[in-house]
Amino acid sequence: MSDAERFQTDAEIQWCPGCPNFSLLKAFRSALARLDLAPHRLCLVSGIGQAAKLPHYVRCNFFNGLHGRALPVATAVAAANPELTTVVVTGEGDCYGEGGNHFLHALRRNPNLTVVVHDNRIYALTKGQGSPTTPLGERRSIQFPGVEVEPLNPLGIAVVQGCTFVARGFAPEVEHLADLLAQAMEHPGLSVVDVIQPCITWDPHPVSWYKERVYRLEDDYDPTDPQAALAKTREWGEGRLPIGVLFRADPKPVFGRRFREEIAGGPLAALPPVAVEAIEEVLERMRP
Amino acid sequence: MDDLSVVIAGAAGEGIQVVGEVLAQTVSAHGYAVFAWQEYESRIRGGHSRFALRIGEVPRNAALERADLLLALNPGAAQQYRPLLGDGGLLLSPEGEGEAEGAVAIPFAELAQEAAGKKLYANSVAVGALVAALGMDREVLYRVLERRFREKGEEVSEANRKAAEAGYREATERCGERCPWKLGGAEGRYYLADGHRAVALGAVRAGCRFLSAYPMSPSTSIITFLAKEQERLGVFVEQAEDELAAINMAVGASYAGARSLTATSGGGFALMGEGVSLAGMTETPVVIVLAQRPGPATGLPTRTAQGDLLFAVHAGHGEFPKAVLAPSDPVDAFHQTVRAFDLADRFQVPVVLLTDQFLAESLFSVEDFELGRSEPELHLADPGEIEEYRRYRLTEGGVSPRLYPGQSEHLVGADSDEHDEWGHITEDLEGTAVPMMEKRLSKLAGLRAALRPPEADGVEEAEHVLVGWGSSRGAVREAVELLRAEGVAAGSLHFTDLWPLPEYRFPEGKRYWAVEGNATGQLARLLRSEYAVVFQGRVGRCDGLPLTAETIRRQIDV
Q1: What is the residue-averaged pLDDT of chain A?
Q2: Dihedral sign (CA B168, B174, B179, B180)
Q3: Taking Cα atoms as reference points, which of A141, A97, A136, A142 lies closest to residue A119?
Q4: Contact check, Cβ <8 Å, A268/B256
Q5: Is B260 in contact with B248 (CB distance < 8 Å)?
Q6: Residue B455: its pLDDT value, please?
């Protein structure tokens, strides 16, 4: 069995034929193969949307939960069992819209997770509404006169909040994306990879429109400079779409580390219930 | 000496909780049973608060309405709570009433300034005065104070002692024969425990290792307690950004194999609705403490109620099994919490534990927690015995073998979408969706069989039967005693297991009264629909104060 086949499933894929999600999936499997990971050591967590179906197409543990709520589930999975490689696959509506608050707080907590956001700047499964990243002025099914509110700059937010691995990929560039995903999964703490993944059904622009604007970060780009990274995240507005590692910094303490090191030692599931004596000791203090 | 009622009243910020707790501990250290409940407003300073203690030789763990001794920390509080004083009652207050009949003036703040150099120590003056008025041993009080303020350093500890001594001396001089009480000492040895610490310890005993919650009164004490005791009790505690995150984290940790808890109150539980449904669909065990307070919406944030029973029973969209349990006192809370985790694991369902502000924050005298009575039961499968793992394998009784990710080479898939036995999304309506729905719902029969019928007291001989649930057990039992003392043949039925309702047949030919801390009769509605029982009448309370024997008695038309 080849490394990539190790993660194959025979589930019927429910994406539109020709969707860039297929390339994204290929890149994802390829990244997993590079990491030499056993399927039972991988846990994919997702919410709702087209991106959230991806865990069904990868042979591994998975939790496909509620719209917007993948991050809290995954944060807890990673805290409860640090021996797993936990990855969130989500869309921009799921992660930045319904789950926006959780995204902010995941940036604060720095759980050991990789968050892969399929960002097509559109709500596809619900048939073409604007999403948190839809550019100003673009006409969508509900934003009929054109989007009147500013799009979110999620990678800018991640940089500002001190996320130590912030990257952007482009789904059709499979090898480049696989490389980004592998780096992200190896990085301790929270890694955010926003993937430009155009919607071939609802997006007013064809994939070629993106191909003309996407470019790889220059060789002399310094990803350790947060100001430069922030400037790169703003190029969206100018119609230039840089891909690569926008920002990277030394890993910070991972969510739950203190508890693990000082109290638990390993997965919470492996701990036996606390002895009655410890409870008696606490109770004894309730005797005046 | 039996059934003495002491009420301490004051404004938020005056420290009546400290006075009350120190007095409760002093009384308890004298070997008496003490029950203490409190009410306060949702503000940081000002308003009216009360801390009420009931003292006796045997535990009477229910609220009393009257006061025998009222200590008011300010004149406004004296005015507000004075009607509670019965004949022979005494008011201790800083000014105004002078030496009138039934009142003794003690200038708490001035004495504090004199004895300890700061008005801040007025609380300790007050508690010293109470100890003198009740005829207790001041040395016992000093020990309690020393233990309480030890951490704040010698100076603070000493100042509190001096202030208490001043209050003690002043009250001794002034009370004279108007203070007839003499709490010389009794034989009892009690824990002084509140309901939420007992829930927290029950969770620990059950093997809970993960708690995520968003602070909301009155559920917050569970999180605070477990966070403080983290080193000893080993529960990972996280303050979530909101209740949506709280329950989703608890579900995530449980999927990862850790027994998980979340705790909230009505408004937070409203936000958790989707997560309750998620736990139902993904068949992930989780225990949710719903600490009731009056609603709707923000309601009366610091008061008590039994107003979320039907909300708990119906929580979550769609149809799925869950259990709802309502413990009555700290010992029960400990054991029911262990049971809640076991039921959640055994049937892979969410379990709601209904507490309330009264149970959460009152101090109960407990003789013995009988810790040995509850052993946690773990229900994880053995991966070695499974050839091909299917998380949602269709089984007799609906419970599939549960493994957690990383436990073995078996892969564990969970899905909120309707799914097949492997956890993969399905649109196969007849062949997969219907059997899966039936599988989940088939757990109800087993769950129902595992739940317990109501506790009956004297029902066979009774003509009038009071039917209650949760934390009002003590008050209902006492109301039955009041009725019996009047010659009425009364009994009670107490429900702890509220959903699914256990098999039970209501004896015929009785007059049933539903007793509950809400306005619309939720228990009555539930029991009518499930058992077709007919109620003679209903006793309700929705003013944010606990049910008491007196309130119940007044509303029973006999």
Answers
A1: 95
A2: positive
A3: A97
A4: yes
A5: no
A6: 98
From the list B190, B248, B372, the residue facing A65 with the nearest CB is B248
What mean pLDDT do residues B274-300 have? 98
Q: Is the dihedral of CA B307, B310, B312, B318 positive or negative?
A: negative
Dump pLDDT digits (tens) for A11-59.
Answer: 889 999 999 999 999 999 999 999 989 999 999 999 999 999 999 999 9
Cα(B539)–Cα(B465) distance, rounded to whole angstroms? 12
Looking at CA atoms only, how far is residue B338 from chain A in angstroms? 11
Out of A216-230, B56-70, B174-188, B493-507, pick the least confident. Answer: B174-188
Contact A41 B406 (CB under 8 A): yes
Helical residues (DSSP H) of A49-99, grouped into ranges: 70-80, 92
Residue whose C-alpha is closest to residue B218's, from B196, B243, B240: B196
CB B174 within 8 A of CB B125: no
> CA A241, A245, A251 angle in degrees (round to 5)?
145
- Cβ partners under 8 Å of residue A158, min gap 6: A107, A166, A192, A247
Burial B31-44, CB ≥16 within 10 A → b, else e:
bbbbbbbbbbeeee
Q: How far apart are CA B335 and CA A274, in angstroms?
A: 15
- The phi-psi region of residue B177 (left if phi > 0; otherwise alpha if psi is between -120 and 50; otherwise beta) is alpha
d(CA A198, CA A133): 12
A90 DSSP β-pair partners:
A117
B39 phi/psi in degrees, rounded to 5: -130, 145
Q: Following CA atoms B457, B461, B462, B468 in sequence, which dihedral angle do they give, to the nearest 10 degrees? A: 20
Question: Which chain B residues are within 8 Å of A264, Cβ to Cβ?
Answer: 209, 234, 236
Q: What is the pLDDT of residue A36?
A: 87
Q: Is A81–B406 a contact, with Cβ atoms under 8 angstroms apart?
A: yes
Q: How many residues does chain B have?
A: 558
Surface-to-core class of residue A138, CB atoms within 10 Å of its CB (0-12 exposed, 13-18 middle, 19+ buried): middle
Q: Closest partner residue to A84 among B197, B212, B406, by Cβ?
A: B406
Task: Report d(CA B289, CA B344) in Å as an integer.
Answer: 13
Would you state the pLDDT for residue A237? 80
Cα gap B101→B70, rounded to integer Å: 14
Q: Tell me the Ramachandran region of residue A110: left when phi exceeds 0, alpha when psi lies from -120 to 50, beta otherwise.
A: left
Contact A73, A63 (CB under 8 A): yes
Q: How far is CA B176 from CA B23, B141, B225, in A?
A: 21, 20, 42
Q: Cβ distance B90 to B102 under 8 Å?
A: yes
Distance from CA of B11 to the nearest CA of A (A): 26
Strand, coil or helix: A113: strand
**Interhelix angle B138-149/B122-133, nearest 10 degrees:** 150
**Environment class of A49 (CB within 10 Å of its CB; exposed 0-12, middle 13-18, buried 19+):** buried
Q: Which of B277, B424, B428 is the best substitution to test chain A (most A C-beta atoms within 10 A)?
A: B424
Q: Is the dihedral of CA A28, A29, A34, A39 positive or negative?
A: positive
Amino acid at position B323, single letter: A
Cβ neighbours of B376 in A, within 8 Å: 273
**Residue B537: what residue type?**
G
What would the mean pLDDT of A253-276 be, rounded to a whole number? Answer: 95
Enter the ipTM: 0.98
Residue of A nearest to B281 (CA): A65
Distances (CA, A) of A190 to A52, A115, B166: 19, 7, 59
From the list B172, B176, B90, the residue with the least C-alpha distance to B125 is B172
Tell if the CB–CB gap between B236 and A280 is shorter than 8 Å.
no
Inter-chain touch A64–B417, beta carbons under 8 Å: yes
B58: left (phi over 0), alpha (psi -120 to 50) or beta: beta
